[in-house]
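Problem 12. The chain below contains 231 residues. Write out its predicted structure in token notation.
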Amino acid sequence: MIIAVSQFGAIPLLWVQVGAVFAWLGIVGLIAGVVNRSAASNSELVRKIVHIGTGNIILLAWWLNIPASLGIAASVLFSAIALLSYWLPILPSINSVGRKSLGTFFYAASIGILIACFWQNQSQYAVLGILIMTWGDGLAALVGQRWGQHRYHLWEMEKSWEGSLTMLLVSFTISCLILTTDQGLWHTWSISLVVAAIATLLEAFSRWGIDNLTVPLGSAIIAFGLHQILL
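Solution.
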């Protein structure tokens, strides 16, 4: 077992990793709780705080080199909790948004799938997919609800061009930051533009919360595939 040495003595590295994860989740939960108690808050804002805040844990996992087995186990656990929450009041602040959706379950499941597929040797693609889901989808929803003036409809869903543009720009920025390689800027920008466009299309078709599955998986797979083709 790997040991981390600190002022408190020898501590198993796994304990440090798990402790860091729970500390971050605690911070996100605290912020969401404070906002939820605010008179001016709404359930959708709380939901997006959790959506964005929780997803950023992948950066902590990447930095600490947390084992894939731990990430997959956490995904299975939270997927099960998400499913139970549709019958039991486990996550009232997250699920009480006035619409029936499996988004929370897809969110947790997609993280586990990406970790299982890419974490061992190509972890950057797992990080890319998860961050596009968390930041791109999260900010697109907030911008669309607050400033979306130009609406369009897909199936029975109403979207805004402002929200979709936000999704495109955020996805492109995240892709550029993560996919920077020694192949040159054209390589990074071209892949990032395609990934961002596809992620935006997938987010637009978000019925039943399926975008929390299609956006991260689609983004990661397209980025990986294009990199192999253009390498």
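Discussion. The chain is about 70% helix and 5% strand. Students who got a different answer should revisit the alignment rule from Section 12.3.
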